[in-house]
């Protein structure tokens, strides 16, 4: 059975004649007759009793069965068509892997805009601190470095700065060597933090790590409390810091590179594509 044939059956049953059904559907009357004949051939019997003349046609018992189930199929088809159109317009679901800095600074703007454009969009965020993420099971994933076996686009370069209490260092840049033996609060040695600590070691600088935490606010809080200094990417400094100062480091550390990745050889949904567009716009303003 063809959905067009079921739609014709429904129109004839509602209008009572082939001519009125043709007007409703925008067909010729002969086209309606051909479609009804094709349907009757498919189901193996007549679906209408045809009294002839101006009298309306009537459904046969077989026609009533076909119409009842046919209307269910037509309703499902209409629901599917609507869902496809909404998907193409940018609705649906998108699963995004993220981490603290992106969650706090970039994604609020992106999510707000997506939900303004598509209130029914289903956005799911998954935040995990990991040394090497996977795009499997996610539509998009943010990471401070390249993601293996994935397509990706660099979102921004995030420079590192030294964070200290006011007056702890003179204004202006601070030599990297000044951190040798200094008490320091730091992130766990995974992701880009591991690279930063390799730079210390290569320069012969060995800070005294007094506390490690994956919580950016925890790092800032302990610097504020006087526990030590911290070297952090600027994007992580999303908390008020009136009593803290930031300094460039000489020589400068290579910035943290933030990428947005997705599985290779996979067609992205319109919603995921829009997330990428808005992310790049937001990062560009930063």
Describe the overall structure.
The protein has helices at residues 3-15, 18-25, 29-43, 61-89, 100-117, 191-202, 216-224, 270-285, and strands at 48-49, 58-59, 93-98, 122-127, 140-143, 150-158, 160-165, 174-175, 183-186, 208-212, 230-233, 244-247, 249-250, 256-263. The protein is of the alpha/beta class and 286 residues long. The strands form five sheets. The chain has a five-stranded mixed beta sheet, covered by helices on one side. Strands 11-7-12 form a three-stranded antiparallel beta sheet, with helices on one face. The chain is rod-shaped, with a radius of gyration of 32 Å. The two termini are 57 Å apart. The model has no long low-confidence stretch (mean pLDDT 91).
């Amino acid at each position: 059975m063809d959905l067009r044939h079921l739609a014709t059956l429904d129109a004839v049953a509602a209008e009572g004649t082939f001519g009125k059904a043709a007007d409703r559907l925008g067909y010729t009357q002969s086209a309606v007759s051909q479609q009804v004949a094709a349907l009757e051939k498919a189901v193996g019997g007549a679906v209408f009793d045809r009294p002839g003349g101006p009298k309306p046609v009537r459904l046969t018992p077989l026609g009533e069965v076909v119409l009842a189930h046919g209307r269910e199929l037509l309703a499902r088809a209409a629901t599917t068509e609507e869902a496809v159109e909404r998907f193409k317009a940018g609705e649906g679901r998108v699963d995004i892997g993220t981490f603290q800095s992106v969650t706090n600074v970039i994604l609020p703007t992106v999510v707000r805009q997506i939900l303004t454009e598509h209130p029914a969009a289903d956005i799911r965020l998954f935040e995990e601190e990991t040394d090497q993420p996977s795009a499997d099971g996610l539509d998009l994933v943010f990471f401070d470095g390249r993601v293996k076996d994935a397509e990706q686009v660099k979102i921004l370069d995030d420079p590192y700065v030294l964070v200290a209490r006011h007056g702890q260092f003179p204004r202006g840049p601070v030599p990297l060597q000044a951190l040798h033996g200094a008490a320091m609060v730091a992130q766990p040695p995974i992701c880009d933090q591991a690279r930063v600590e390799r730079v210390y070691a290569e320069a012969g600088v060995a800070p005294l790590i007094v506390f490690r935490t994956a919580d950016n606010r925890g790092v800032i809080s302990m610097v504020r409390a006087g526990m030590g200094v911290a070297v952090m990417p600027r994007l992580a400094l999303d908390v008020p810091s009136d009593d803290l100062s930031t300094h460039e480091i000489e020589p400068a550390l290579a910035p943290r590179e933030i990428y947005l990745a997705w599985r290779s050889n996979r067609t992205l949904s319109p919603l995921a594509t829009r997330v990428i567009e808005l992310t790049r716009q937001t990062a560009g303003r930063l």
